[in-house]
Structures are given as structure tokens and as C-alpha cells.
Amino acid sequence: MPEGHSIHRLARQFSSVFGGERLTVSSPQGRFAAGAARLDGHVLEAAEAHGKQLFLHFDHDLYLRIHLGLYGAFDFGGDETFIGSSSIGAPRRLGEQEVAGDDGAGYSGPPEPKGAVRVRLVSKHGWADLRGPTACEVVTEAERQKVLARLGPDPLADGADGAAGRAAEFTRRLRSKGSPVGLLLMNQEVLAGVGNVYRAEVLFRRRMSPWRLGRSVGEAEAGELWDDVVRLMNDGVRQGRIITTEPQDRDDTGEPVPVSEAHYVYKRTGLPCRRCGTPVAGTEMGARKLYWCPSCQAD
Ligand SMILES: [Zn+2]
Q1: Starting at the edge strand that comes first in sequence, how are the strands of the sheet with 44-50 ordered?
Q2: How many CB atoms lie within 10 A of CB 296?
Q3: Spatial CA neighbour of 139 closest among 74, 53, 70
Q4: Would you call 12 a catalytic residue per the annotation?
Q5: Among candidates 211, 205, 185, 226, which has minimal Cα distance to 273?
Q6: How far is the CA of 84 from the centre of ligand 1 (A)?
Q7: Distance 51 CA to ligand 1 centre (A)
Q8: Where do the structural domains in the chain lie, given as residue ranges?
Q9: Given 52, 175, 199, 274, the catalytic residue
Q10: Which of 2, 110, 153, 180 is catalytic?
């Protein structure tokens, strides 16, 4: 599942390729036909992410709310002025499609939709196809506010002003719960945007047992946890991938960082811990695989 950093990148991409453009909106698959009709012909004013939620703001104060979930993905294509010819979300099972116009041969509109395209957005210069989302609906400002009110703070939210407030809010929400931190970090009501990779990696980096209960985490510890999530996720937005290891903990120090050196514990079950050599352990927590070092992250 794409974590929050991917959704923030997606929001930036929408702003850059469709911002200020009047869009033709359709649902080739038909499942979103009524919603698409409410947006068709309107101008996209802004795209924003909160955690794993994407909101596309149209000029008549309606929003398209999208949650990609495990299988959702966008494909983009268009002419040479449209810098979005890539896919963000789940890997495309059929491989990425090359799009006419990328080679400067001219752009004559989007290709025939392939597969179950829930929504297609088309501007003068390019198009985006969404397949397989968990949520895709038109919401009003009031409904958007309701969705946001349920979510915890987003480590990637803009604005230094609210930074202290967001940290304090995370600390308050984390420490009010009696569940293990391994569950709470994935709970979007505690903080919005963290998924399975960041959960495992940040707990390792803070040397914290995934079974520590939220209410037993001290204020200073919670603040450090938050700061590390903010740092790692901002790196993720910049780099377009998740790298959590420090250079001194990698065996191969080549650049770009090899996939095999990018993480401390995520998907490293049985391999030696980069810090202490203990085999990395794996189990299920919150219906997702959890990875940790039993020595570095002892209770
Ligand atoms: Zn270790």
C-alpha cells in the first residue's frame, strides 16, 4: 500500500499537470459514472493529501476524495508539456503503458481505456486513469472536514506554524491508548500516513518494542518518535522511495542506495540485525507483517 509520502507526491503531480485546467471527467468502467458527471467540465483548483487521503478540489467546491488502498493506482500520460507520464500506487500488473506523444510524435488524446478504469481525468495536454481504489467519491467541503476530523496529524503537513501542535496532538493521541505502539502507528486516527514500512523502521530506529503500550510511552519518547517519522517521510517525498538506514549501518555504501540496504528490519526476517547481528524476527500485527530486532527492541 502506498504510504503517505507517495500520496503527497501524487498531490504535487496533480497540481503540476492539472492545476488550473478544465477537465473532462468520466468513468470508463461505469462504476463512478454519477460522481464523474458532477465533476465533468470543472476546473481543478488544487490537489492536497492528508495521510493516505487525496483530495482534488474543483472550482464548484466539490472534492474528489481518493484512497488508493492496497491495489489502487494512477497512470498518467500526455504530450511533452505534461510531466506526469508515470504510475503512482500499486505496481501495475500489466506493466506500465507507453503513451503516444512521449516521443514527441504528437498527442492525439488518451488511449482507449484498458481494464477497469474507475475514473479518467483528461485535460488538453494529458490524462490520468485510476484503477482499483478503496475509495473514490465526490464530497462537499463539510464532508471533507468530517473525514479530516477523524484523522490524526499528518507528519507531512505543510507549515512550520502548526508543527509543534501536530507533534503535541500525536503525543496526546498515542498516550491516550492502551494498545501496542506497533498497532497505533498504523492507526490513521493516531497519525495519518504511516504504513507498514515506516512502522517497522521507525520503531527499530527508536529502539522501541512494538508491544510497548501507547500509554506507557513517555512524552519525550513520543516526541522523538514523531520527529523521526517527520524526518523519514520528508526524505521519502524527496527521494520517491523509503530509505531509513544511516550510511554507517549499510554493508554496501553505493549510491543510489541499493534496495537491499534501504531498511533495518522491513522484509529482513532471519537476516542479521545491522546493529547487533541478532536475526530479525517477523510476526503478524494488525493483519500486516511486522518486523523487529528482538535485542535492539527488547521490552
Ligand atoms: Zn539488533
Answers
A1: 44-50, 53-58, 62-67, 135-140
A2: 21
A3: 53
A4: no
A5: 205
A6: 41
A7: 30
A8: 4-148, 153-292
A9: 52
A10: 2
Determine the Cα–Cα distance for residues 248 and 227; give it in Å rounded to an integer.
Answer: 21
Distance of CA 278 from the midpoint of ligand 1 (Å): 5
| pLDDT tens by residue, the chain, 299 residues | 789 999 999 999 999 999 999 999 999 999 999 999 999 999 999 999 999 999 999 999 999 999 999 899 999 888 888 865 555 665 443 333 434 444 445 678 899 999 999 999 999 999 999 999 999 999 999 999 999 999 999 999 987 778 899 999 999 999 999 999 999 999 999 999 999 999 999 999 999 999 999 999 999 999 999 999 999 999 999 998 999 999 999 999 899 999 999 999 999 999 999 999 999 999 999 889 999 999 999 98
Ion ligand 1: residues, CB within 5 A, are 273, 275-276, 278, 293, 295-296
Grid coordinates belonging to 36? 464523474
Q: Is 52 a catalytic residue?
A: yes
- CATH assignment of 4-148, given 3.60.15.10, 3.20.190.10, 3.40.50.720, 3.30.70.260? 3.20.190.10
**Pairing mode of beta strands 135-140, 62-67:** antiparallel
The rounded Å distance from CA 149 to ligand 1 centre is 38
Q: Is residue 2 annotated as a catalytic residue, yes or no?
A: yes
Q: Is 173 a catalytic residue?
A: no
User: Is 269 strand, coil or helix?
Assistant: coil
Give me the architecture of the 153-292 domain, per CATH.
Answer: Orthogonal Bundle (1.10)
Span from the CA of 178 to the centroid of ligand 1 (angstroms): 26
